[in-house]
Automatic annotation (TrEMBL):
This is Phosphate transport system permease protein PstA. GO terms for cellular component: plasma membrane. It comes from Cryobacterium melibiosiphilum. It is found in: Cell membrane. Its main location: membrane. The lineage of its organism: Bacteria, Bacillati, Actinomycetota, Actinomycetes, Micrococcales. The chain crosses the membrane at residues 25-45, 51-72, 84-117, 137-165, 177-203, 209-228, 260-281, 331-353. One of its GO terms (molecular function) is phosphate transmembrane transporter activity.
C-alpha cells in the first residue's frame, strides 16, 4: 500500500447517529408553535383579521417536513433523512384525507342532533306539517324500499356477469361486456334517472310518471357496474389450484363455482355489494326525476310518488317555509340519519363477511 493513500473512515448509514425516539412529535409541535407565533404576530400588527388555526396547522406541517429532513440529514445521514421525509409525507397525506371526513361528521352531528333527538322525528311523516315538528319516517321507508329493490335487481345480474367474465368469457362478448361495464361505471347519476324516466314514460305512455320502482331501476343501473367489477376481482383472487382440485375429483364446472369459488370469495363479494349500496343510497338526482317526492307515507313501489332520504334533505333545504330554521334542522337530521344507515350497512357487511368467510385453520 502506498504511503500517500488516504484512509477515510467507513460510515455505515445503518449504524450512524439517530434522533431521539420521540423527536418527530416534538419537532411537529415546535413547528406548529412557530407557525402559530407568526400568525399571532400578524394578528397583533393587524395585518390579519384574526388568528388562523388552519393556516397554523398547514404552514406548521410544512415547516415540520423541512425541519425533520434537515435534522435527520445532519444526524442520521441522507438515506435515513429521505426515509423520514417520505414517512412524514405519507402521514400528512393520511391526516389530510381524514380532515374532510371529520369535518363532515362533526358538522352533521352538531347541526342535526337537536332535530334527530326529537321524539316525533322517527315516528311521523311531513304530512300537514308547515313549521316545527314532523318526521322522516316516510323518507326512511322509501329509501329502504327503493334501495332494497335496486339491490335485488342488480346483485344477481352483476354477480352472474362477473362469473361469466371470470369463468367462461374469453371472446369478443366478454371484451364487449367489460368495455360497457367500464363505461357504465363513469356515467353521471342523473343520466340513470333520465334513462329510467324515459323508459317508463314510453312504456306507460305517461310523461308525468313518478313511482318508487322507477327509482329502483335507476339505482340498479348505477349499482350493476360496481357489483360486476368488485365481484370479478374477488373471483379472480380464488387460486386456480382449488378449481383444478375440484375438476380432478370429477366435479362439474357449475358445481365447482357454486361449492368452491363462490364460498371462497363470499367475503369480498359481500363487501363489494355493500359498497355498491353505499354508492347509490345517497343519490338525489335520479330519484328526484323518477321517484319524485311526497310528504305522505307510501309503501307501494309501483304506485304514486315516494320520498327518499336524499330527496328529503334536498327538499327541506330548498323549499323552506315560514319557520326556515325548522326546515334546515330537519335537513341536517336527515343527513345524519343517512350517514348512520350507511354505517350500519357497512358494519353488517363486515359481520356477514366474517361469518361466511372460509376458515382455513384446523
Amino acid at each position: 500500500m502506498s504511503t500517500d493513500t488516504i484512509i477515510r473512515p467507513i460510515t455505515n448509514s445503518l449504524t450512524a447517529g439517530k434522533l431521539p425516539k420521540r423527536s418527530p412529535l416534538w419537532i411537529l409541535l415546535a413547528s406548529w408553535v412557530v407557525a402559530g407565533a407568526v400568525f399571532l404576530v400578524l394578528q397583533v400588527t393587524e395585518v390579519a383579521d384574526g388568528f388562523n388555526v388552519i393556516g397554523t396547522i398547514v404552514f406548521g406541517t410544512v415547516i415540520y417536513l423541512i425541519a425533520i429532513y434537515l435534522l435527520s440529514r445532519m444526524v442520521e445521514g441522507a438515506r435515513q433523512a429521505k426515509d423520514r421525509l417520505m414517512t412524514a409525507l405519507v402521514a400528512s397525506a393520511f391526516i389530510i384525507s381524514l380532515v374532510p371526513l371529520g369535518s363532515i361528521i362533526i358538522t352533521t352531528v352538531t347541526n342535526g342532533l337537536p332535530a334527530f333527538l326529537t321524539p316525533s322525528f322517527f315516528n311521523s311523516s311531513m304530512r300537514n306539517v308547515v313549521g316545527e315538528g314532523g318526521g322522516v319516517l316516510h323518507a326512511i321507508t322509501g329509501t329502504l324500499l327503493v334501495t332494497g329493490m335496486a339491490t335485488l335487481i342488480s346483485v344477481p345480474i352483476g354477480l352472474l356477469s362477473a362469473i361469466y367474465l371470470t369463468e367462461y368469457g374469453t371472446g369478443r362478448l366478454a371484451r364487449a361486456i367489460t368495455f360497457f361495464v367500464d363505461v357504465m361505471t363513469g356515467i353521471p347519476s342523473i343520466v340513470a334517472g333520465l334513462f329510467a324516466f324515459a323508459l317508463f314514460a314510453l312504456l306507460f305512455n305517461d310523461p308525468g310518471i313518478r313511482f318508487g320502482f322507477g327509482g329502483s331501476i335507476a339505482l340498479a343501473v348505477l349499482m350493476i357496474p360496481v357489483v360486476v367489477r368488485s365481484s370479478e376481482e374477488m373471483l379472480k383472487l380464488v387460486p386456480n389450484e382449488l378449481r383444478e382440485a375440484a375438476y380432478a375429483l370429477g366435479v362439474p364446472k357449475w358445481l365447482t363455482i357454486m361449492k368452491v369459488v363462490l364460498p371462497t370469495s363470499v367475503a369480498g363479494i359481500v363487501t363489494g355489494v355493500m359498497l355498491s349500496i353505499a354508492r347509490v343510497i345517497g343519490e338525489t338526482a335520479p330519484l328526484l326525476i323518477i321517484a319524485g317526492f311526497t310528504a305522505s307515507m307510501n309503501y307501494d313501489l309501483f304506485s304514486e310518488r315516494m320520498m327518499t332520504l336524499p330527496v328529503f334533505v334536498y327538499n327541506q333545504y330548498v323549499s323552506q317555509g315560514v319557520d326556515s330554521q325548522a326546515y334546515v334542522d330537519r335537513a341536517w337530521a336527515g343527513a345524519l340519519t343517512l350517514i348512520l344507515i350507511v354505517m350500519v350497512l357497512n358494519l353488517a357487511a363486515r359481520l356477514i363477511a366474517r361469518i361466511f368467510s372460509p376458515k382455513f385453520g384446523r
